[in-house]
């Protein structure tokens, strides 16, 4: 994935340095795709919910008694 990001950024910057307006616009689009891909990769994958048979982490366990503040 890092190679794809490097290619997108390098192609985008290369196209931005051209004199043609169309190539500059395509370069901006390619850079935008690279930035979106970078954000998705840095976000990581969603974690699966914990297995209820093994026990949930302490923060996810419901409390036994709920105090009502008066």
Notable features of this structure?
70 residues; mainly alpha; 54% helix
Characterization of this structure:
The chain is mostly helical. It has a domain at 2-43. It has helices spanning 2-16, 21-43. The longest helix has 23 residues, at 21-43. The protein is elongated, with a radius of gyration of 23 Å.
Number of separate helices = 2
Indicate the mean pLDDT.
82
Q: What would you call the quaternary organization? A: single chain
Percentage of residues in DSSP E strands:
under 5%
Distance between the termini: 55 Å
Order of helices and strands: HH
Which helices and strands, and how do they pair?
Layout: H1 2-16, H2 21-43
Helix pairs in contact: 1-2
Summarize the structure.
With 70 residues, the protein is mainly alpha-helical.
